[in-house]
Request: fold
Amino acid sequence: MKAFLLSDFLSSLCAIPHRAAGSQGEQDALHLLEAELQAMGVDAQRELFKAPHTYIPLLWWVSLALALAITLPAIGTFFLALVFFGGAVFYFDWRKSFLTSLPPFVQATNLWAKKGSGKKRLILMAHHDSAPASFAYRPSQVKSFRQSILMGLGVMIACLFWAFLQLGSYSNIWVTIALLILLAVQLALATFDFLRFGYTNAANDNGTGVAAVLATVKHLWSDVPDDWSIEVLFTGAEEAGMIGAQKWVDAHLPELDRENVYVLNIDTVGAGRLHYVEKTGTLTTLHYDNQLVDTARQMTQNDPQFSDVQATAHRVADFDSVWFARAGIASITLGAYDENGLMPHIHRPEDTLDKVDVAVVQSAVDFATALSRRVMISL
Reply:
């Protein structure tokens, strides 16, 4: 195998302007990944799926349904809005939602490769796509991300309530106009920075995770235990709602023995201090309580090399690991956070290579490699 250098790979990956789902940049990134995997002696398999190019069209669909219900009040429009609101609640609780099946679509790609044929499976995962630039992730706004989601859902509930009242004898054009303005403001805020800046270069989120997975699996593939299969999964359309990972789990769930599959996800490890995630969630909380998390906790408590690695709760959207956790499969996510508990620069135009600290990425590789080996020895 040729040497794999984190800095060289990140430079090559970030030379691609962006890697949005369905874009030429995504294809360029996939070719780069396939070449790296082939250099490690492994042929990768592409799995294609349809997905929205971002989450923005989903917000338009919901807002249009609500606007229709309050401007043309009727039983049909009310129940249509109610269905779309339910889809939004599921989407923002990071569960399966029909909203991700609505057009417009692009063709996105997951990339999967493996070594070994044992019954026990270790899957190292990272998403390869870029995020749209977002107002909600501005430094002044991202600390209130969860509150922003709740406020947005609050506006939707107000629209539903007004639509319901209008089915009776209530009518006030000024209330309708005020709610339409609130919906329009939400859509403007959701799309404004994307219209200005487009997609991010995504050096930290998640070029660093992709690089860390490649470096980790290179170590692990040099000596695969007889009873293990060590796999890599690079997912697409994560930034539209973790869709690539959802599609992969749906397609492969019949073959996944929940008691013998372990998933280590690496997402955004280029700045700050390395953490492992114990719980996630915006509306409800998903607890990660499994052998991987237990092993990570023991390592940070007993191994001086990893004493700086801390546990955290993540409340700004979610990770690809959510679908594995909801399916009852042991999983863990590694990420790096600043002193405010936030991932620096994500979903912003400044998410570029000059903001990445390769030493932090290397710390993720070291931790992921040690965690993987300890899990494989102990199970």
Observations:
- The chain has two domains: 6-50+108-133+199-378, 56-101+137-197.
- Residues 98 and 348 are 28 Å apart (CA to CA).
- The first strand starts at residue 45 and ends at 51.
